[in-house]
Amino acid sequence: MPIVLIVDDSEVDRRLVGGLLPKDLDWLVEFADNGVEALEKMRLSLPDVVITDMMMPEMDGMELVSNISMDYPHIPVILITGHGNESLAVEALEKGATSYVPKQFLADKLQETVEQVLAVSKADRSYSRLFSRLQNTQYRFALDNDPALIPPLVDLLQQTLADMRCCDATGRMHAGIALEEAMFNAMLAGNLEMDREQVLEARGQLRQGYVSQLVKERRSQEPYAGRVTEVKADISLDQAVFIIRDQGSGFDIARVPNRHDPETLDQLEGRGLVLMMNFMDEVRFNEVGNEVTMVMRCRRDCAVPPVVPNAPGFPPGFKL
Predict the structure, then answer these.
(1) CATH number of the domain residue 163 falls in
(2) Side-chain half-sphere exposure of 147, counting CA atoms within 13 A
(3) For each of the chain's 320 residues, which pLDDT tens digit applies?
């Protein structure tokens, strides 16, 4: 049973956020008034994910993110961003927050975001460390238009990052989310030419365990049927380079926002791209807009956190 800790100094807002989480998924929801109380609760029982407001007394969301990133790097943190504090949210993402949801889009995006970070977090700890002495590895995949192939591929790349000590648990979750957004965009929006609402619906259905009817239909139709999503990964002790390319018509790269631009957090469209731009050290597109290269530079001082025996909860495409 996943444990979700909601942190907000407003009781009304805490209950509102808790009420948006599905009752039929057997999640245990706990609450804290501020960062201090949240850390006290975490010392007694570790949650699987933390959802926090930014502006709180005693200890705000920024300081809470810093503390969790330092002491509990395997626990993802989702920010609730209000209008006017986008700059703080960008800083919090840089300090280790895993994702964010604008307050005005909570009803539409909260459940999806929680499910995403829970899945990525669980996958990040699901493999044995098989390649502890690996110096360099390369992958080349040509995916047909089956979105069910994306989660296990993201899992594989995350585990490789862990095996090679390229980044800590937070960095691996960041990489997983960025890769997932890029691959889903390439396959669904690029190759299958689905619009934003169709992409969101298809991803939601995949989380429920089945492939959408529209995806099934377009996989067998021209011009979509023969298209593939190419995924290349080159991971060394110094950096990880990921190249994702689709065979669609691309998009206008002039619409790509600047990295760490606070204004991009206060909108729903392009949210996946915002996460990619913030979670990777370098993101660049080809001129057509159907290929993205993402670079993550390895942190030499990163360490894989030890497993805490019996600790509760452990281990347990963007569209513009």
Answers:
(1) 3.30.565.10
(2) 33
(3) 789 999 999 999 999 999 998 776 778 999 999 999 999 999 998 999 999 998 898 898 889 999 998 889 889 999 998 876 777 778 888 888 888 888 888 998 899 899 888 887 776 555 444 455 677 899 999 999 999 999 999 999 998 898 888 888 889 999 999 999 999 999 999 999 999 899 989 998 988 888 999 999 999 999 999 999 999 999 998 999 999 999 999 888 877 767 666 665 655 557 888 889 889 999 999 999 999 999 999 975 554 443 333 333 333 333 33
Quick check: 192 and 143 in contact, CB under 8 A?
Answer: no
Tell me, yes or no, whether 164 and 198 share the same domain: yes
Rounded distance, CA 213 to CA 154, Å? 23
Q: Could you tell me the two tokens for 88?
A: 């703080």
- Residue 21 maps to which CATH number? 3.40.50.2300
Residue length of the chain: 320
Q: What are phi and psi of 271, to 5 degrees?
A: -60, -40
Domain that holds residue 142: 136-297
Instruction: Kindly give the residue spans of alpha helices, DSSP state H, lying in the chain.
Output: 11-19, 35-44, 61-71, 86-95, 106-124, 150-163, 169-184, 196-207, 213-219, 271-279
In a domain, 313, yes or no: no
Asked whether 135 and 114 are in contact (CB, 8 A), the reply is: no
Residues 150 and 184 sit within 8 Å (Cβ to Cβ): yes
Element (H, E) at 319: none
